[in-house]
Write a structure and sequence with these properties.
By secondary structure, the chain is an alpha+beta fold. Helix content is about 25%, strand content about 30%. A hairpin with a 5-residue loop joins strand 7 and strand 8. The longest helix is centred in the first third of the chain and has 14 residues. It is globular, with a radius of gyration of 16 Å.
Length: about 190
């Protein structure tokens, strides 16, 4: 359910870490995040399903040593998104919703590229809205584009382990949205 795709590779190697944390307020989850960050040292971090408010996410960003944070508040007890980045790069947020954060990244070498964190609709009858969002975002820019997150869908039925069976029709609809958006699965 978690993956990414891109139109072309970003011009310079920038580390991006994406995680559906299912609640960052728990001490154990936060410690795991600290450990991952120490190990991988990403310049950009995207959390989905934070289950936190904007203010809470900004406090977490500070504790995780990110100088910048753009967050979308939870709704009720669920949801919430956060994109954090360090001072090595400039990130210009272009659009957002409770299901995405779209940005242009200005790398220190002067190059520009897009990054979009996605949290797909978890409800089966709402998946079409995620695919429509991907298609709309794809048409907004010709910059190299890295799109990542939790799409709440798999591209191949054999990727799903446990839980309910996935309907082939939904998998095909996701594949079509990826193809229409000119994205490639990074695996």
């Amino acid at each position: 359910d978690i993956g990414g795709g891109c139109k072309t590779a970003p011009p310079r190697a920038i580390k991006v870490l994406n995680w559906n944390v299912r609640g960052l307020g728990k001490g154990r989850t936060f410690r795991e995040a600290q450990q991952l960050l120490q190990e991988h040292k990403p310049q950009i971090l995207f959390f989905c399903e934070t289950k936190m408010t904007v203010r809470q996410m900004q406090e977490k960003a500070y504790k995780l040593h990110f100088q910048n944070c753009f967050a979308v508040s939870r709704e009720g007890l669920g949801g919430g998104l956060a994109m954090m980045w360090n001072s090595e790069i400039v990130v210009d947020i272009k659009s957002y919703s409770k299901h995405h954060v779209d940005a242009v990244v200005h790398s220190e070498n002067g190059s520009y590229w897009r990054c979009t964190g996605i949290y797909g609709h978890p409800e089966t009858d709402q998946k079409k809205h995620t695919w429509e969002l991907l298609r709309r975002l794809a048409n907004l820019s010709s910059l190299p584009w890295l799109c990542f997150g939790d799409f709440n869908k798999v591209l191949n039925l054999n990727e799903k382990i446990g839980g309910k069976d996935r309907r082939a029709e939904l998998v095909n609809n996701f594949r079509e949205a990826i193809r229409d958006s000119d994205l490639e699965d990074l695996g």
